[in-house]
């Protein structure tokens, strides 16, 4: 009888623990983490062929990028573990989620949406906002976690940040400027009074915005400051040159997909300059050219400034008129990892 009682108690505690598990970015061991960054390696690195699913991992506890023991198409790594929260809870009315991508899986992708990709999920306590550069990702919640074969060829970056509930109304407004191609979402009635803008986007409507761009200061759940730059399609300019470098007061080194015919050259016409990175080097060593890398990030040229940003837009004339954004911080861990990844750049 005592044994049966203990089994019942342990079972009850298990279900209570599971139901109260916080929504968060999760690290490589499945533990909650303030933020993490994944740098998925391209399949070709200076003519050397790889798997296309290996990745480097970074979070506040890691000194520099380290090669993951997992692959990006596995549900056992940080990305798979984090998104499994979506796939296991998407039918619940106790949380909000939104999945968006200008190149969604299984659907056509008209260009009138912002050039932006991401996933967010939160409950009344906290949640995560994952921004990334991977087309056709992630799958619809009904499909369970997987990684697209189309995402193997080029390098990709993914940034996950954990926020308290109070930060998500600000994020909701940023989404209005980003004009995301939302392809799956849920904003239950209990959340709609606080998230009218997000509910509009989820319902397929276009929220009205007052300005051409928006800058919001965000705090992660553990107090790290991040700045969200979001521009609408009405702000027709290169986000790096025209806005971010000037707003941060620093010259920027920018890594973006320089594969297009309309790529923009390095620009020194304004007080703060923007220069294109042409080679990336990660620990290992892992070396590849910019056109082998679909990620979008930038770092301050001056070490003293320590700005690092990850985002949505390439330095391409065709994307100057697209909505999109960047998330920036002065985290010394993030800055050092990405500044060291810059292996060469084009002067103006």
UniProtKB/TrEMBL annotation:
The keyword Signal applies. The keyword Signal applies. Keywords: Hydrolase, Signal. GO terms for molecular function: deoxyribonuclease II activity. It is an enzyme of class 3 (hydrolase). One of its GO terms (biological process) is apoptotic DNA fragmentation. Residues 1-21 form the signal peptide. It holds the Pfam family DNase_II. Its EC number is 3.1.22.1. It comes from the Eukaryota. It catalyses: Endonucleolytic cleavage to nucleoside 3'-phosphates and 3'-phosphooligonucleotide end-products. Belongs to the DNase II family. This is deoxyribonuclease II.
């Amino acid at each position: 009888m005592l044994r049966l009682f203990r089994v019942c108690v342990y079972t009850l505690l298990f279900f209570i623990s599971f139901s109260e598990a916080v929504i968060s970015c999760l690290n490589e061991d499945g533990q909650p983490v303030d933020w993490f960054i994944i740098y998925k390696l391209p399949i070709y690195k200076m003519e050397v062929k790889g798997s296309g699913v290996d990745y480097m991992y970074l979070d506040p506890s890691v000194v520099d990028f380290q090669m993951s023991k997992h692959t990006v198409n596995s549900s056992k790594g940080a990305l798979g573990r984090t998104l499994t929260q979506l796939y296991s809870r998407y039918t619940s009315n106790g949380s909000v989620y939104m999945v968006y991508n200008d190149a969604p899986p299984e659907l056509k992708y008209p260009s009138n949406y912002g050039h932006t990709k991401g996933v967010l999920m939160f409950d009344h306590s906290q949640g995560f906002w994952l921004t990334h550069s991977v087309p056709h990702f992630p799958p619809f919640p009904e499909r369970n976690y997987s990684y697209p074969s189309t995402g193997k060829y080029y390098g990709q970056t993914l940034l996950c940040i954990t926020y308290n509930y109070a930060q998500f109304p600000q994020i909701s407004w940023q989404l209005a400027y980003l004009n995301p191609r939302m392809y799956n979402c849920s904003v239950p009635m209990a959340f709609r009074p606080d998230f009218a803008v997000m509910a509009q986007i989820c319902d397929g409507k276009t929220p009205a915005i007052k300005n051409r761009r928006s800058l919001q200061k965000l705090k992660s759940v553990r107090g790290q400051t991040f700045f969200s730059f979001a521009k609408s399609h009405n702000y027709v300019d290169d986000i790096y040159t025209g806005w971010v470098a000037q707003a941060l007061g620093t010259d920027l080194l920018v890594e973006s997909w320089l594969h297009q015919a309309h790529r923009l050259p390095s620009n020194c016409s304004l007080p703060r300059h923007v220069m294109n990175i042409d080679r990336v080097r990660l620990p290992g060593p892992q070396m590849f050219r910019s056109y082998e890398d679909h990620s979008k990030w930038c770092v301050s040229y001056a070490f003293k400034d320590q700005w690092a940003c990850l985002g949505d837009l390439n330095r391409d004339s065709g994307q100057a008129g697209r909505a999109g954004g960047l998330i920036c911080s002065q985290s010394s861990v993030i800055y050092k990892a990405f500044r060291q990844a810059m292996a060469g750049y084009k002067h103006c």
